[in-house]
Amino acid sequence: MTLKQLRYIATVAETGNITEAAAKLYIAQPSLTASIQELEKEYGITIFERGKKGIRLTPEGEEFLGYARQVLDQTNLIEERYTGSASGKTRFCVSSQHYSFAVEAFVELLEKYGGDKYEFHMRETQTYEIIEDVAHLRSEVGILYLNSFNETVIRKTMRDNNLTFETLFVAKPHVFIGKDSPLAKKKKIKPEDLRAYPRLSYEQGNHNSFYFSEEILSTLDSDKEIVVCDRASLFNMLVGLNGYTICSGIINEKLNGPNIIAKPLDVDDYMEIGYILPASIRPSTLTSAYIEILRKFS
How far from the centroid of its chain's Cα atoms is residue 271's Cα? Predict the structure, then answer.
């Protein structure tokens, strides 16, 4: 095994395509394929499955990639510490529901550990994709919530993907609204107060089950429903249409602007917000650092 082979594995996993990986690595495709096969033979494992739809990691390949990334991360840290420059870009990826504190922590991590060369990904995405991203090592860590309604289904999905969940904090439900909304003068909002206004929620794609909804109380009837894919659209419609969305209540004015406010929702419910990790892989240095930053917001 060589560091070069580990970089080959990581690049193929990242691109999902041998031809694209070979071009990115500036080597011939046959040489890349032979190098991977040598590594598979050395350890008696199959790292990639090759089929008509392309190439993908096997379960043992996912585990191997987790260890390979740790070695590569540590190598970069050693080189940066003793030579003043790392051999490649610092890479890190987070998949999360739409939480401003997760973005704020991501920015702080980047400022501390980004270095001269980096490739950081902040994926605010659908709930099921967060689980898939972490399970298939596209992201080092995922952030989502549990409550009494979705916990059984979400935990089963995580167990099926060999993932663990650790709690960061428990939040009481709030409502995000525009600062000039007719509801803005209320100290506490009741569910019946929301009936006249559009409810905004995030698109969940093929797994658009209530259990994977990013918003709690998603089963409540609403005559006016708006589904969006991104935070900017949601916030614009909160303001422009006097809409609302149900959330944790944690908001960062610097990131989200002064026009959005949070009001407590008068319901007996909670949001247990936490992070998910692969159960069989030790967190990398950057992952551990990111989690420590997240804990400051709890």
Answer: 17
Angle at 238 between CA 236 and CA 243, to 5 degrees: 145
Evaluate whether residue 84 is within a structural domain: yes
Q: Is 97 within the bounds of a domain? A: no
Residue 199, domain member (yes or no) = yes
Q: Is residue 27 part of a domain?
A: yes
| Sheet of 141-146, strand order | 118-124, 90-96, 141-146, 271-278, 163-171
Query: Is residue 253 very low, low, confident or very high in pLDDT (cuts 50, 70, 90)?
Result: low
Contacts of 283 (CB under 8 A, 6+ apart): 140, 141, 277, 291
Hey, what are 258's tokens? 């002064």
The last residue of one of the domains, among 55, 70, 88, is 88
Collapsed DSSP state (helix, strand, coil) of residue 171: strand
Q: What are phi and psi of 279, to 5 degrees?
A: -70, -30
**Residue 244 φ/ψ, nearest 5 degrees:** -150, 160
Please identify which residue in the block is written with the tokens 């407590």: 264
At 185, the amino acid letter reads K
DSSP H helices in 148-194:
151-160
Digit-coded pLDDT (tens) for 159-217: 999 999 999 999 999 999 999 999 999 999 999 999 999 999 999 988 878 899 999 98
Spatial separation of the C-alpha atoms in residues 196 and 117, rounded to whole Å: 50
- CA dist 211 and 209 (Å) reads 5
Boundary of a domain, candidates 69, 88, 107: 88
Residue 90: half-sphere exposure toward Cβ, Cα within 13 Å: 23
Domain limits for position 265 = 170-272
Q: What is the DSSP letter of 211?
A: G
- The CA distance from 26 to 7, in Å, is 12
